[in-house]
Amino acid sequence: MSSAAAARIFRGCRALMSSSAAAGGKRPASASAAATAPKVTTKADAAEAKELRGIMRPVPVSDALRRFPGGAPEISRANAIKIVWAHIKANNLQNPANRKEINCDEKLKSIFSGRDKVGMMEISRLLSPHFMKTN
């Protein structure tokens, strides 16, 4: 089969054309790109690059969040939420009647603007002012 006939049949689909072109002895354009050495990255490199983006990137935090148990001078937003939820679970602060509501103790009041109760969906919004802007 000639390459012109193959082009009419396969209508320019490179995946299908590559087998017909290889049979004719011609090398398709995509084969030259595949012949070059692929870029090698290790799992550790990929994990490190992924870890430093978005909510996983450590940023400086306020004094109130730094004094919170398990706090550090720089912490990622995801880890801050984990620390707050670990404190809530350890001290059994969820309202038994309404599990979406958290009864704040003194430590939580220090980071949640003195509020007695917060909703579980409000936690990330209330933590947001504690993260310092970095450029």
UniProtKB/TrEMBL annotation:
Residues 54-133 form the DM2 domain. SMART domains: SWIB. It holds the Pfam family SWIB. InterPro entries: SWIB_domain, SWIB_MDM2_dom_sf, SWIB_MDM2_domain. Signal peptide: none annotated. GO terms for cellular component: nucleus. This is DM2 domain-containing protein. It comes from Brachypodium distachyon (Purple false brome). The gene is LOC100827902.
